[in-house]
Amino acid sequence: MANIPNSITQLFSIDYPIVQAGMVWTSGWKLASAVSNAGALGLIGSGSMYPDVLRQHIRKCKGATAKPFGVNIPLLYPDIDKHIQIVIDEGVKIVFTSAGNPKTWTPVLKQHGITVAHVVSSSTFAQKAEAAGCDAVVAEGFEAGGHNGREETTTMVLIPLVREAVKIPVLAAGGIASGRQMLAAMILGADGVQIGSRFVCSHEASNHIKFKEAVINSREGDTMLSMKKLAPVRLLKNNFFETIKEAEARGAAKDELAAILGHGRAKKGMLEGDLEDGELEIGEVSALINDIKPAAGIVREIWNDFNAALNNPLSH
After folding, report:
1. Alpha-carbon span 44 to 194, nearest angstrom
2. pLDDT band for position 228 (cuts 50, 70, 90)
3. N or C: more exposed end of the chain, with fewer CB within 10 A?
């Protein structure tokens, strides 16, 4: 697999312009190191980790790969200052931030020589990230799994809007699981892609096997955006989803929705495998995912598919 030199591969010192998203209950050190060893960029998802757990994952990742890797930090995390200090203390060189204002922590990270990318759902937020000093943005469309933008702008519309709005490198995310989709995103103006859902169905992902099997068995229309009054999140439909849907349909207030959500709902679903009453965060592209394989095999499959599509874009 020949590499491709561009702004993303140069920014992160990787072979392929592919980033594995830092997902809660999924992206631990095993997945991040496997993806990085395969020539892409692996990210540890810190949003579901206590500070001491994050430190352990960073150290184990450093022991498992000599290649670059990063940490995804949701800026709304309760102990955000502790997570920031840990990535600084442990010498992490790449941080992806999301779900918050990049102005707050980007200058601190940059002062310590850390490359910062921020996840955005609109061109306005992309410009704010650029103004805050971010080195790149992730333009994440409405198709994406997990937490999502209220604007409901699809990836195919969002990428060219963000590309026109900023000068820094742009990663496309949301609804991308194949090399052909990666090529489409790059034709629209992205410099690379961030992929989440496809890596959920990897051997190294830390989520429960029942969740992985639910993803590969899902079909078109099996996911839907939910909980827009709290924080929009795309979910696989199950008992929990239907309970939330019914509450939203009768106009439940934020407090009632928060009470239904409770604590540990995502852990219950994705890590512990409760497919009925757990929160199952996944993207629309789950309908195109049909197998569970090693992370390195996923990187190779995406890259080979990208090159095949690049060489013959009209073939099917």
Report:
1. 13
2. confident
3. C
Rounded to whole angstroms, the Cα distance separating 118 from 136 reads 7
Residue 304 confidence class, pLDDT cut points 50, 70, 90: very high
Going by pLDDT thresholds of 50, 70 and 90, the confidence category of residue 1 is very low
Domain 7-206+289-311 in CATH: superfamily?
Aldolase class I (3.20.20.70)
Q: Assess whether pLDDT exceeds 50 at residue 126.
A: yes
The token pair at 235 is: 């979910």
Q: What is the mean pLDDT of the chain?
A: 95
- Beta bridge mates, 96: 72, 117
Beta bridge partners of 74: 98
Of 114, 42, 54, nearest in space to 82 by CA: 54
Walk across the sheet containing 146-147 and list its strands. 146-147, 233-236, 223-226
Distance, CA of 186 to CA of 160 (rounded, Å) = 10
35 in Cβ contact with 299 (< 8 Å): yes
Taking residue 316's Cβ as centre, other Cβ atoms within 10 Å add up to 5
pLDDT tens digits for range 96-123:
999 889 999 999 999 999 999 999 999 9
CA distance 50 to 25: 12
Note the pTM of the prediction, 2 decimals: 0.96
* Structure tokens given for 42: 């692996």
CATH 3.20.20.70 segments of the chain: 7-206+289-311
Query: What's the pLDDT score for residue 3?
Result: 64
What does the radius of gyration of the chain's CA atoms come to, in whole angstroms? 18
